[in-house]
Amino acid sequence: MVLKLKTLMAAAVMTVALALPRAAEAVPNFAAQTGQPCAMCHVGAFGPQLTPFGRAFKIGGYTQAGGDGWASKLPLSAMVTTSFTNTRQDLPDAPKHYNVNNNPSLDQISVFLAGRISDYSGGFVQLTYSDVTNTAHVDNTDLRPFTTTFDVGSHDVRVGTTINNNPTVQDPYNTTPAWGFPFISSALAPTPAAQPMLVSAFNNNTIGYTAYAWVDSALYLEAGAYTTPGGWALARIGNNLGGQGAIAGAAPYARVAYEYQWNNQAAHAGALYMRANVNPPTGIPFQSSGAAGQDRYTDWAFDAGYQFLGDGTHIVTVQGIYVHEDQQLNASGGGGSFSLNQIRASVAYWYQNTYGVTLGWQNTWGSLNPAYGTANGKPNSNAFTVEADWVPFGKAESFANPWVNLKVGAQYIAYTQFDGGYSNYDGNGRSAGANNTFLLFAWLAF
């Protein structure tokens, strides 16, 4: 009974964390700093999907200059997201202060401290308040204490270091979980319980220290480790433990990718690795314990992407990632070995960086595991997403460039499988399609 309670609580924490909208690194003061419009760094003139120029800016430690006047040196930006959520059937329980369906919400207000510190360092820190959960916390953070370039024979090499709080938040490719599609999601709609460690376990509640090298603007190599701060520190930054718990010791992380660019096109392929020994949560906020043993998660991921940018009139992007996870759950799973797999893929078309349509697919499957907290113990879920966007600003000639940008969109997610079932997946008669979600949103950056 105690084990079941713990697993259900862990699943609930994970579900809430996944439901929160993703934040973006597309901040207007970066545009002011570089003297470039948002469309130079971002597909669709609005983040977070990066162009080759945007990836170079990020790998370069956010240090590139080029803007003029006081605005180019102002390190502050802000972001507001608001939305309307409808699910095909009413929610089983109404979220606090909301109805069981058809809910408008103020999802997120964020302030960014972001920009270059010197030619050798830069970064960003995001502070976020959500009216849905009535909480404030330190959100995505990516600091670059030192970066520089030098020549090795005929090769140009950039090296750097990062301090961040979310595995893959420092990654330059939008296939990885922190910045992958969908870039925004409902804070109120149900989401599948089972997610790989790389996707959700350590978002904003860890500290990662990594070093990287970028050779000839093509080969990207990164390695480092993550750890979980103590409960006192987590409480002060407003972030609880993830569903899996706290990292015991250090969790190694490695990344490799190769990118090829030609004729205003770019393609990359890469791989990711992370392994963590984890003390499960105790059920008390900010606390975990290895007294009953530790769980071990090992994630391997393979990703690839393609971008056709052309002259900016017609833009096409294709992205995909496959994650395989091995689980040895000595504490929360009674010593059992389990596996989890996930594929995420998307294809997008943009016209003049203003009108966009994106199709996405996410499929999760794996072995039977009661730790997910699903009624049948199965992790299997399958969803298709279609999103239409309008970005009226973000170009060189836009109103109030670079200090105002806006994305307005409509998104629909259709589930053919949810938490291991097609119909009656929860034991109470609810079908996967009952969670189909229609989202209208407005995303303002200034």
Summarize the structure.
The chain has 446 residues and is mostly beta strands.
Task: Describe what you observe in this structure.
The chain is mostly beta strands and 446 residues long. It has one domain: Beta Barrel (Porin), CATH 2.40.160. The longest helix has 18 residues.
What is the tally of helical segments? Answer: 6
- Approximate shape: globular
Average pLDDT works out at: 92
Low-confidence stretches: 1-21
Strand order in the sheet with the most strands: 1-2-3-4-6-7-8-10-11-12-13-14-15-16-17-18
For the terminal residues, how far apart are their CA atoms?
Answer: 50 Å
Query: Roughly how much helix do the residues carry, as a percent range?
Result: 10-25%
The CATH top-level class label: Mainly Beta
Number of strand segments:
18
Radius of gyration: 21 Å
The CATH architecture can be named as Beta Barrel
User: Quick one: CATH superfamily?
Assistant: Porin
Q: State the major sheet.
A: 16 strands, antiparallel, barrel
Structural class: mainly beta
Q: Note the run of SSEs as H and E.
A: HHHHEEEEEEHEEHEEEEEEEEEE
Tally of structural domains: 1
> In CATH terms, what is the fold-level topology?
Porin
Strand content: over 45%
